[in-house]
Design a protein that fits this description.
about 20% strand, eight-stranded mixed sheet, single chain, 12 helices, five-stranded mixed sheet
C-alpha cells in the first residue's frame, strides 16, 4: 500500500525505515500518463469486467453460466462514459480495497486474470477528472464510491444502496467516468468499438459473451471478432510447448499469409485473450528476430500469438517485462520464421509480378501521352489529316512520327520482360520486334535503378524513369531531315517521355499504396 508522508507509526520496527510516497496523487497521475489514447484507458475498465466474467467462466467448466453483457455508453451531452457489466460485482470491502490499496490488487497470484498491479482502476487519471463505481454482489447490498483525480485524502467511504442493480442478474459493476480533459475528448462509438474488437478479439469470439457500444438514446452496436476463416491464404497453426520452472506452458500461434493485403491486421501478441501489442511494436521481440519488420510487418501476414502465463505484461500492458520466460517464449516463436518467410516469398513473387504489370501499364500510358501531338485551332487532334499535318510541320516531340495503315499514330508497345523474344538485337537491355519494345528488367542497369519496399515489392524511381526514357527514345521511328535534327528529336523525346513517366510515377505510387 502507498502511504502519504506521515509521522512514523508506533509499531515501526526499531532500526528500520519505511518507504513512503510524499505525493501519491502526483505519482499515480504520472503513471496514468503512459496511456496514449482515451480508448486504451477505457479498455482497463472493460478488462476489469472481463476478469470478473472469467471467474464465472472457470467456475462453470469453461462456460458462462448465463449471457454475460458488457455495455459501454457514451453520453456526449453529460460528458460521461459508462461501462456496465452483469458479472459478480464486488462487496464493500473489495470495492474500497481496489481503490485505496494501490499495488495490492486482489488479483495478484490469480494466474488466469489480467490485472496484477491494481493500477488499472486509476487509469481514468490520464483522461478525466472523476470516476464513480456502483456495484452489487449477490450476498451483499449495493455500494457506490466516487474518486477525483486530485484526491488521496478525504475520500468518502463506499455508500450503501438498497435499490435493485439494473441488470438481469441483479449483480454487476457500473463505472462512470466524467469531466474528460479537452485533449482526451476525441473518442467516438466507432473508435471505442474498433479498439474493443482489436483488443479483445479472442474473448468476444466466445459464446454467451456480448460487448456493445452506443451513444445515449441510440441502439447498441455489438463488437464482433475478426473472421480469419473468411480470408484466403495459407495458415500456420501451432501450439508450442515450453518447459519452464518445472511447468509446461502452451503458446498458441495462429498466423495467416493472406492472398491479398490486410491493412491494420498485423500479427499481435495476446495474453489471456487480451491484445498486448503488434509484434513489430514490441522492441524486445524485434531485437531477437532475424527478419524483423520485413516479415512481422508484412502487409499479407496477420494473426495472433497467445502467450498465456509464461510472460508478464508491463503496467500499461503494451509490452512484456524482461524475464527468462519471455526469452524462452520469443525463442520458440522465432523458430517459425523460416516457414513463415517461405510463404511470404510466394506472395512477394505474386505481388512483384502484379506490380511490374502495373508499372508496364504506366509506361505505356506515358508513351501514349508523350506521343500525342498537341491540338491546334487549325488541326484538331481528332482529325487524322490534321494530325498528319501537325506532325509534318513539327510535333510535340519535334520528330516525324509513323502512322499505321488507318492513319493513326503508331504508339510503340512496351513490355517488361526477363527473356527477350527471338531477335537479332545484341543489346541485352532492350530490343524491338515489330512495333513492340522489350526491356530487360533483370539487367543490372535496370535493377540498379529500381527501388524496393521493405517487403521487396518493386517501385519506380526518378532514376528509373530517366533510364526508361533514354532506352525507349532510341527505338522511336524518327525520320529527320538532317543528322542534327535526329539528335535534337531524340533529346526532345527523352525530355517528353521523362516528364510523362514522372507523372505516371506519381499516380502509380498512389495506386500501389492502396493495394
Amino acid at each position: 500500500m502507498f502511504r502519504a508522508n506521515t509521522p512514523s507509526r508506533p509499531n515501526r520496527i526499531p532500526g528500520t525505515i519505511e518507504l513512503e510516497i510524499s505525493d501519491p496523487v502526483l505519482m499515480l497521475n504520472e503513471i496514468a500518463r503512459r496511456y496514449e489514447t482515451t480508448e486504451r484507458v477505457l479498455m482497463e475498465y472493460v478488462d476489469n469486467a472481463l476478469d470478473d466474467a472469467e471467474a464465472l467462466y472457470r467456475e462453470n467448466d469453461q462456460h458462462y453460466p448465463y449471457p454475460i453483457a458488457i455495455e459501454i455508453t457514451i453520453d456526449p451531452t453529460a460528458g460521461t462514459v459508462t461501462i456496465q457489466d452483469n458479472c459478480r460485482g464486488m462487496s464493500r470491502d473489495v470495492l474500497e480495497r481496489v481503490v485505496k490499496n494501490i499495488g495490492e490488487s486482489y488479483k495478484r497470484g490469480v494466474t488466469w486474470v489480467n490485472g496484477r498491479f491494481g493500477f488499472g482502476v486509476h487509469a481514468f487519471r490520464a483522461a478525466a477528472e472523476s470516476i464513480q463505481f456502483q456495484t452489487k454482489h449477490h450476498n451483499s447490498s449495493g455500494y457506490s464510491l466516487q474518486l477525483d483525480r486530485s484526491q488521496h485524502r478525504g475520500i468518502k467511504e463506499a455508500k450503501r444502496h438498497d435499490d435493485a442493480f439494473p441488470t438481469a442478474s441483479g449483480t454487476g459493476t457500473m463505472v462512470i467516468i466524467s469531466d474528460f480533459d479537452a485533449d482526451w475528448n476525441d473518442f467516438s462509438v466507432d473508435s471505442v468499438k474498433a479498439e474493443i474488437e482489436h483488443h479483445f478479439e479472442r474473448l468476444i469470439a466466445r459464446p454467451n459473451l456480448t460487448i456493445t457500444v452506443a451513444e445515449t438514446g441510440r441502439p447498441h452496436q455489438r463488437c464482433l471478432p475478426f473472421d480469419y476463416e473468411a480470408i484466403e491464404g495459407k495458415s500456420i497453426r501451432r501450439t508450442l510447448q515450453i518447459d519452464y520452472k518445472e511447468e509446461t506452458y502452451p503458446i498458441a500461434v495462429q498466423l495467416l499469409v493472406a492472398r491479398e493485403k490486410q491493412p491494420d491486421r498485423a500479427v499481435s501478441f495476446f495474453v489471456r485473450g487480451r491484445r498486448i501489442n503488434e509484434a513489430v511494436q514490441i522492441k524486445s521481440f524485434m531485437r531477437k528476430s532475424d527478419l524483423k519488420t520485413r516479415l512481422w510487418g508484412h502487409p499479407h501476414l496477420l494473426g495472433y500469438i497467445e502467450v498465456g502465463e509464461i510472460v508478464h505484461p508491463a503496467i500499461t500492458r503494451d509490452d512484456f517485462n524482461r524475464t527468462k520466460g519471455r526469452q524462452l517464449c520469443y525463442e520458440a516463436i522465432l523458430t517459425l520464421e523460416p516457414e513463415i518467410d517461405t510463404l511470404i516469398k510466394q506472395v512477394n513473387t505474386a505481388d512483384k509480378d502484379k506490380t511490374l504489370g502495373t508499372i508496364e501499364n504506366a509506361i505505356n500510358n506515358a508513351v501514349a501521352a508523350a506521343e500525342t501531338p498537341a491540338p491546334t485551332p487549325e488541326s484538331p487532334i481528332g482529325s487524322t489529316a490534321g494530325a498528319k499535318a501537325e506532325v509534318s510541320a513539327a510535333t510535340a516531340l519535334s520528330t516525324a512520327q509513323t502512322f499505321d495503315d488507318s492513319g493513326t499514330l503508331a504508339v510503340p508497345d512496351i513490355r517488361l520482360v526477363t527473356d527477350f523474344p527471338a531477335s537479332d538485337a545484341a543489346d541485352e537491355r532492350v530490343c524491338q520486334v515489330d512495333k513492340t519494345i522489350y526491356i530487360n528488367i533483370e539487367h543490372p542497369d535496370f535493377q540498379e535503378r529500381l527501388a524496393y519496399t521493405r517487403q521487396r515489392i518493386p517501385k519506380i524511381t526518378d532514376r528509373l524513369t530517366a533510364y526508361l526514357a533514354g532506352l525507349i527514345s532510341i527505338y522511336y521511328p524518327l525520320q529527320p531531315a538532317a543528322e542534327t535534327d535526329a539528335l535534337q528529336a531524340q533529346v526532345d523525346t527523352i525530355i517528353k517521355l521523362e516528364a510523362a513517366l514522372h507523372q505516371q510515377r506519381t499516380e502509380l505510387a498512389q495506386t500501389l499504396s492502396h493495394r
